[in-house]
Design brief:
The protein is of the alpha/beta class. The protein has a 5-stranded parallel β-sheet with strand order 2-7-1-8-9, sandwiched between helices. Strands 4-3-6-5 form a 4-stranded mixed β-sheet. The radius of gyration is 18 Å and the shape is globular.
Length: 203
Amino acid sequence: MSRKGLLIVVSAPSGAGKTTLCKEISRALPNLQHSISYTTRKPRPNETDGVHYFFVTQEKFNKMIKDKEFAEWAVVHGNLYGTSKKQLSEMMDGGIDVILDIDSQGAMQIKENWGNGVFVYILPPSFDDLRRRLTERNSDATNEIKKRLENAKKEIPYYKRYNYVIINDKFEKALEDLKSIITSERLKIDKFNTDMIDEKFNL
């Protein structure tokens, strides 16, 4: 059955585990791909260009903005992040469900400009837990952690503008919750070719 792919937009404060959840769910469910964002941020030691992000220069990113190549873009923690319109359209037009791991600024742009989407916000159990996670992952300097926590205070209130909220206390439970959301959305009546069903049942 031919259908347009779903767009699942996932946001969270830095350190809540959204990227890990998105990567894992795209492995766990068939016909679901994790969209790769463009960024001007420098890659971390364990990150690969074209796998985790497309790492580009500020000049290249600015040209893409000028050429209107982004479905959304935002400044996050002092770096630029964006989602390619072309990549998103090609995947969804091909019937692939796309999971997009972006911040609230970008999610609100998608909500306003892109049309239908499924919006999921990931929260840690508490702000203290978020602080502990950012400190323990040892990937950012102290001033960077402070900046991320300050940004989290501004971002978290956006959760009320999403369709679903998941508390990422236990990873496996959060993964099951995300899986349930996507499965339910795939089974909605507007995702089916009702003419084909009517024909099969002589309706």
